[in-house]
Specification:
101 residues; mainly alpha
């Protein structure tokens, strides 16, 4: 299950990169957006924007699901309570703090 979801996650990442680079923006990007497919530039931009939103939503969803699956496994945990930090009984040889006037 986790492997299949990881492959889907990687494909969504690749698709998201490609869709973002195709979009025509003020900054330029690759400028591949638009074309002779009969759609006006505004309609193509709207379709690319919707596609980007859907792919980004799926990407974030798979990220959250992968995180939950990862934390549910026995060998991984997000708890830091297991680690014990030993502090010295007395603190010696510390420099004095500077005094502000």
């Amino acid at each position: 299950m986790e492997t299949i979801l990881l492959v889907i996650h990687a494909l969504l990442a690749l698709l998201l990169i490609i869709i973002v680079l195709i979009q025509r923006a003020e900054g330029g990007a690759l400028g591949i957006g638009g074309g002779a497919d009969g759609m006006n530039p505004r309609g193509a931009a709207d379709a690319l924007t919707r596609t980007t939103a859907v792919i980004a939503t799926l990407f974030i969803t798979t990220s959250i699901i992968l995180t939950v699956l990862s934390l549910r496994s026995n060998d991984r945990t997000l708890s830091f309570d297991d680690e014990v930090i030993q502090l010295p009984e007395e603190i010696e040889d510390l420099p004095e703090l500077p005094q502000l006037d």
